Amino acid sequence: MMREIRSVPFGEVKTQYHSMKSEIDQAIAEVLESGWFVLGKNVEAFEAEFAAYVGARHAIGVGSGTEALHIALLACGVEPGDEVLTVPNTAVPTASAISFANAIPTFVDIDPRSFDMNPAEIEARITPRTRVILPVHLYGQAADMGPIMEIARKHGLRVIEDACQAHGAEYKGRKVGTLGDIACFSFYPSKNLGAYGDGGIITTDDDALAERCWLLRNYGQKVRYYHSIKGFNSRLDELQAAILRVKLRKLDAWNNARRARAALYSQLLLGSEVIPPEEMPYGRHVYHLYVVRSSHRDDLQRFLAENGVGTVIHYPIPVHMQEAYQGLGHKLGDFPIAEAYAREILSLPMYPELPEESITRVAQVIRQYTMRKED
Ligand SMILES: *Cc1c(COP(=O)(O)O)cnc(C)c1O
Fold it and tell me: Would you say the CB of residue 166 lies under 6 angstroms from ligand 1?
């Protein structure tokens, strides 16, 4: 008999901890016993393991995904007033990092199928001040990196991947984190690979970029107290690295579990009120979020909430319409696809341990809503 589901929370992280409690507790205890908490053997080992996982030469652990982006921008030589091309439908930290590097976020509208940067819109936005293209692998799906790299090479631009939502995602058989010049990941707790606190990492094949990131994250010093460049403090700590070493070994299984849950949702939602997300033929989606679209989004979200189903909108206001970015002088209509999607998108519960009955329940509530609309 099927367990009756009363409510389906949007997310839940405790089940995962309990599934590996002894390993995690032991990793934490070992760090505490070692008495060494910053830049030690766990960070070094995790950097090597993460680099090997994505297939990059270098990985540099840092304090967060936002700081990874900030450091990567500085390492790429971004200077005050330079323009960085990115998308308007991203987590605001993508743009914050650009702003804190004293550069200007310049937006490119998205492809309506992938939700990611539309390569066909890039060239019209390039100016003499453009230095970097910063595509986001949104919701766990790689951006169309082939044409993006081609345009970047043609115009002499650097490419920074925002892979904060896409640990383990692939593009044409290669993992994200190896596709641009440099890539940034976040270990915020709810990401596909999440710490128990903040953390981030930068990956690159470029020795010179790696060296600059490595200096920037630690006061600009190579040898203690000898500072070759002006740096700051953005370090992954030993506790988080020890935890992430345990969790990295499970990432593929968790991503497979997310994919299986996405497939079930899409099957159950066929012919309903909502449009399910699409996996692009060029890649492997890891469903950090499972985002559907509906022309009655707000009403549907209310109905789901009344029936105990938690949902979130990622993101309700595109970056160019945020109060913080009014100075850029944008208006509604500048990026029509991103703006239309901001009104239609809804993220359904999605995490590796999400029970099958919960997915069935969410789909059932959406079907009830669909029937009510048709009456
Ligand atoms: C989470 C996220 C970030 C920021 O990462 P933090 O670790 O929270 O600083 C940046 N970009 C995207 C797309 C994200 O999802």
Answer: no
